[in-house]
Amino acid sequence: MPFPASTVLSRRAWLAAAAALAVPASRAAEPLLQRRVPSTGDMLPAVGLGTWITFNVGADPVAREACTQVVKAFFDEGGRMIDSSPMYGSSQPVIGHALAKLGRPAAVYSAEKVWTGDGARGAAQIEQSRVHWGVPRFDLLQVHNLLAWEAHLPKLFEMKAAGRLRHVGITTSEGRRQADFERVMRSQPLDFVQLTYNPLDREAEQRLLPLAAERGIGVIVNRPFREGALLERLAGRPLPGWAAELGCDSWAAAVLKFIVAHPAVTCAIPATRQVAHVRQNLRAARGPLPDAALRARIAADIAKLA
Amino acid sequence: MGEWWTYRPQDFLMFSPRVYARLFELTNADAWPAQPLLVAAVLAWALAAWRRPGALPAASARTALLGLAAAWAWVGWDFVANRFAPVNWPAAAAAWLFGAQALALGVLAWRPPRFALPARRQAGLVLVVAGALLWPLLAPLAGRPWAQAEVFGLAPAPTVVVTLGVLVALAAPAAAWALPVAAALAGAAMGAMLGRADATVLLLALAAAAWARRHGRAAVAS
Fold first, then answer.
1. Distance between CA atoms of A113 and B177, rounded to whole angstroms?
2. Rg (CA), chain A
3. What percent of chain B has pLDDT over 70?
4. Contact across the interface for A145 and B2, Cβ inside 8 Å
5. Which of A57, A146, A174 sits opposite B19 (nearest CB)?
6. Which of A266, B20, B35, B207 has the fewest CB atoms inside 10 Å of its own CB, making it the most exposed?
7. Average pLDDT rounded to a whole number, residues A210-236
8. How close does chain B come to A162, measured CA to CA in Å?
9. In chain A, which residues have their Cβ closer than 8 Å to the Cβ of B89?
């Protein structure tokens, strides 16, 4: 009998349950852990797909095909949210290429950003991004790094009210502009915030994650692996005993489980260019998640090793 | 950009080293067999300038400057604007600077500077040969495939090195150096962020050019 994907178990409970029940040989058939978007009740898988650097491959046909295979594997595994930005070079047209090649999968949840200091240019930039993706509308538009948020947010809320957008958000990374970020979270009816959070970068636990929970704002986590640097530092280190308890066969899955197990987090968006890695990442959205005590231990172990 | 001091140089790198290397591979595939012809043309010019710079100095200098103008224009349009800028949007501005340098070299060719005295001229020609013949070797020396070799007239860095060499050999005015020096520094910074050894080589070439310009006598040889 498989465990429900959304089950959060303490170590002791999991060990007791594992002793009594056979652990499924493969979790591939299990549905992904779904998280509720607080403002609208929509459900989204807890692991999405980022595209910073990895999808910026220009017109290279070989690399574009590799990205298409990553997107295909992502949808095959049950993924939905793909996140990009006009700042990411050619990532948008590469996503559009992949979606077109895959017959425009209905499952896609398109998360984009507006990124211009000129509020008057926002609409044109959004339309250009939409054309690159080849989607009728975006599901989520975020003000990238709070750039000209005073000008962009009212327009995004207008789009949402007119039914041309599902969700509105803001982003930051690596803890930048925390005070401004918090101020916007308190004053604006946001659906999502996007921020950096991982076992080594835990500043968000102090104010932003509790505030998101309090205000009913969904949280998208970027840089879960510090652009791969965290996994490079953990490479070759044996997984601690708790990894088996969580069904983790990789450090990537362990890090992602740590992140998405935080009650305020809606999803993490690791970026990758490899099919094997996207499958590995999505495995983190299956099986048991660590409770608060185990999360603390995971963070401590990773801090020691990395 | 808020809290700009918290950004590292790597934060501005929006593409991977693999993608950057593939740009040269695709450029070479599209340009073949231009590569051996371009290298041969540069070497032929350098050999002639080494042996008998006084025979037709103005024509030789004009040929070099017009050839360089064409190279900068082509690299700016084909590589920088059409291949590099899509994965690195700040490069779109750099493409215009390549165009400006092409224009400047064309203007310089109208009344070309004379060749420098032998020591400086030959130092410049060594740099020209290094840019044309040795720079493409950096790819295999760094463990990258030959197909990713960077060739004068198709890729920015060897085009910059050959240009620096010609400017040394021709005792070109200071103004002609501005953009090639800026391009060399930008290329070195980019290479360093990508962890490529050719960033160091580019800086060495720039230092050699600066040294030759400072210490070599620019008085006319013809």
1. 41
2. 19
3. 91
4. yes
5. A57
6. B207
7. 95
8. 31
9. 89
Smallest Cα–Cα separation from B28: which of B182, B111, B140, B160?
B140
Q: For A63, which of B1, B22, B89 is closest by C-beta distance? A: B22
Among chain A residues, CA nearest to B19: A57
Q: Could you report the per-residue pLDDT of A132-172, keeping only the tens digit for each?
A: 999 999 999 999 999 999 999 999 999 999 999 999 999 99
Mean pLDDT of chain A: 91
pLDDT reading at A9 higher than 60: no
Q: Which of A52, A60, A223 to mutate to test the interface with B (most CBs of B within 10 A)?
A: A60
Distance in angstroms (rounded) separating the CA atoms of residues B160 and B148: 18
Q: What is the pLDDT of residues B39-69, one digit of tens each?
A: 999 999 999 988 876 666 788 999 999 999 9
Q: How far is CA B100 from CA A277, B94, B105, B106, in A?
A: 44, 10, 9, 10
| pLDDT over 90, % of chain A | 86
Among A6-10, B24-28, B31-35, B119-123, the range scoring the smallest mean pLDDT is A6-10
Computed over every residue of chain B, the mean pLDDT equals 90
The reply to whether A149 touches chain B by the CB within 8 Å rule is no
Q: What is the 3-state composition of chain B as percent helix, strand, coil, each rounded to the nearest 5?
A: 75, 0, 25
CA dist B47 and B60 (Å) reads: 11
Put simply, the answer to whether B88 touches A89 (Cβ < 8 Å) is yes
pTM: 0.88
Residues A74, B58: Cα–Cα separation, whole Å? 63
Give the ipTM: 0.87
- Chain B contact present for A56, CB below 8 A: yes
Cβ-nearest to A89 among B14, B23, B26: B14
Q: Which residues pair with A170 in a beta bridge?
A: A143, A193
B15 vs A176: CB contact, 8 Å cut-off? no
Q: Within an 8 Å CB–CB cutoff, is residue B5 touching chain A? A: no
Q: Which residue of B has its CA nearest to A117?
A: B1
Which chain A residue has its CA at the smallest distance from B15's CA? A53
Could you tell me which residues come within 8 angstroms of residue A137 by beta carbon, excluding any fewer than 6 positions away?
Answer: A130, A164, A165, A166
